[in-house]
Each structure stands twice: as structure tokens, then as C-alpha cells.
Write a structure and sequence with these properties.
mainly alpha
């Protein structure tokens, strides 16, 4: 495969017992997995850091949480922002995320106020860059205008 090292090709051939088609398929699959992991990692960094100041959002939890957010608008971007915010506030704890949402009266705006407070604290602690905070606020403004 173009762009792959000889050692990767040899390893794939050994793994596939010399079958060229299987080796090529394995290498393509490995590359796709690598690209997905890279994409997920970039997305995690865009989401921000959790309340504990060290963990990033668990991407797999987002899609699990989104359909459970009763009363949330159908706007997928707003739903995504809410799910990410809840996970950040609860250090990726799904059960606690649902409890926090209920404590806030299933009101996304109340949750997002808590997220804004978290962002400000992380910024003051030097755990969040001002550029990320500006992007998040700009994105929030666009979502609010689209409602």
C-alpha cells in the first residue's frame, strides 16, 4: 500500500501467512482504525477537560447519553453540547450525568451555565486555553441564534 513502510507490509504479510489480499486488507483496516482514533482524540480535545481537571470526555459515552436526555430539543448540535457538558461536569459518569440533568429540572440552559462555570475555573487554573473557550462561546452563540 502506498505510504506504508516496508516493515509494516512485511508484518502484515507474516500475520496473514503470506496472503497478499489479506495483508492489504489488514493494513487498510489498521489504517482506518488509526484514523478513527486520531479523529476521536481531536474531538475529545475540542470537547474540553472534565471537572477533575485531567480526564477528557469519553467519546463512546456521548452517543449513549444523548437519547437519554428527555426534554432536550431535537437540535442535534445542542443535544451534543448538552451531553458533552454533562459528561464533563460528572467526570464521564453516565448515571451521575442523568441525575445532574434531573437536578437541573431537565433544563439544558441551567446545565450549560454550570459548564460555563467549569470552563472559567479550568481557564483560571491554566487547564483550558483561552482559544478553546472563545471557540466554545462562539459555537454556543451560533446554536442559540439557530433556535
Amino acid at each position: 500500500m502506498p505510504g506504508r513502510s516496508a516493515s509494516e507490509a512485511i508484518a502484515a504479510l507474516r500475520k496473514s501467512h503470506g496472503n497478499i489480499h489479506t495483508a492489504a486488507s489488514t493494513m487498510a483496516s489498521d489504517e482506518a482504525k488509526h484514523q478513527q482514533r486520531s479523529k476521536d482524540r481531536r474531538f475529545q480535545h475540542q470537547c474540553g477537560i472534565c471537572q477533575n481537571g485531567r480526564d477528557l470526555v469519553n467519546v463512546s459515552h456521548i452517543e449513549t447519553l444523548k437519547p437519554l436526555l428527555a426534554g432536550c430539543e431535537s437540535n442535534d448540535e445542542a443535544n451534543l453540547e448538552l451531553a458533552v457538558g454533562l459528561l464533563r461536569l460528572t467526570n464521564n459518569d453516565l448515571q451521575r450525568s442523568l441525575e445532574l440533568y434531573a437536578e437541573q429540572g431537565h433544563d439544558p440552559s441551567k446545565v450549560l451555565i454550570l459548564v460555563d462555570g467549569l470552563d472559567e475555573r479550568l481557564l483560571q487554573q491554566g487547564l483550558m486555553g483561552e482559544d478553546l473557550l472563545r471557540r466554545k462561546k462562539k459555537t454556543r452563540k451560533l446554536y442559540d441564534e439557530s433556535k
